[in-house]
Amino acid sequence: MPRRRRHGLDLIAGCTLAIATLFLSTGTPAAADPGDPTHGPRREIPPGMLAAMQRDLGLTADEAKTRINNEYQAGAAEPGLRKSLGGSYGGAWVSGNTAELTVATTDRGQRGTITASGAQAAVVDHTLRELTSAKEALDQAAEQRAPAVDAASAWYVDVKSNSVVVQAANTAGAMDFVAASGADRAVVRVVQSAERPRPLYDLRGGDAYYINSSARCSVGFSVTQGDRNGFVTAGHCGDPGDTTTGYNRVAQGSFQGSTFPGNDYAWVETNNNWTPQPWVVGADNTNVVVSGSQQAPVGSSVCRSGSTTGWHCGTILQHNTSVRYTEGTVNGVSRTNVCAEPGDSGGPYISGSEGQGVLSGGSGDCTRGGTTYYQPVNPILAAYNLTLTTD
């Protein structure tokens, strides 16, 4: 196979306690009794939030409205109670479907101050300041890579249990981490947990990715192959086995198949940190939904997304074109008058909401205009037995 060319214009490679803030939209009013002065004004709930609360929290519509209203009132009352309790303040939380407010204090004599406000009082051993100080010691130890830090998967101030909780699969190792941090052991609890948090990133057509930590191309379309996730892109961007990192330089995946010249397509399998989404990056970083891959006829409008020049549109001039690059001939591509530049390679073309293909190459630039060619997406899907991710 001729050596892949990764730069140049003839082949556009580019491989170069928190309470929710409520409520800003109109919707169904909350269910507080307008005649009850303890509830204050009604809160308005976005309809989508109301439906999601019913579904995910197992509430009726009236319960969801009541809960939202009470949560808002609790959030409004908590700062004043925190100030009144001063150094004895131990935190606050709401509980139950009606979101009843509980406020904690280390001073038994302050219970009346709390109950007079309509909240429940809890007398605890440790102030919120003590809990926060222990958590900060753990944070600092983690930044300094303290011994056994990797044994812990998460740690947090848990006001309801009046402790700092450290989650870990290896509890003995986590105890070593706590000891190394110097945190007050009296306020720290280590609990068994199989949870292994990981960062989550979206795969979007048009975003940058890097090949072997250096050259850059653009994601085409998100795809799946059984239980494997990934994306399609241009074949000239990488060879099978080449590794990729995402737009944020986080490990992403590796090329599983690649053909160039002859065709110009490839697919990259990604790791579990990356979630395939039915989107391509549109103007102003908006998400343009992909609903299918029906081929648009000659003369149709088509837009392209790429990590160098972003979102540009034009028309499809011809299908079934053969184009001659220095590396060899690529057959079966579509010709357009959409501009592109190095780094845009592999990025998606879309007509309406139908995916069309991935950028192969071209001439010109997005200052003077130019001609570009895309490898149709359906042959890529068929070649690797892939399924396009759609909405």
TrEMBL record:
It comes from Streptomyces coffeae. This is S1 family peptidase. Keywords: Disulfide bond, Hydrolase, Protease, Serine protease, Signal, Zymogen. CDD domains: alphaLP-like (cd21112). Belongs to the peptidase S1 family. Residues 205-380 form the Peptidase S1 domain. Residues 126-184 form the Peptidase S1A alpha-lytic prodomain domain. Residues 1-32 form the signal peptide. InterPro entries: Alpha-lytic_protease_prodomain (IPR037295), Pept_S1_alpha_lytic (IPR004236), Pept_S1A_streptogrisin (IPR001316), Peptidase_S1_PA (IPR009003), Peptidase_S1_PA_chymotrypsin (IPR043504), Streptogrisin_prodomain (IPR035070), Trypsin_dom (IPR001254). It comes from the Bacteria.
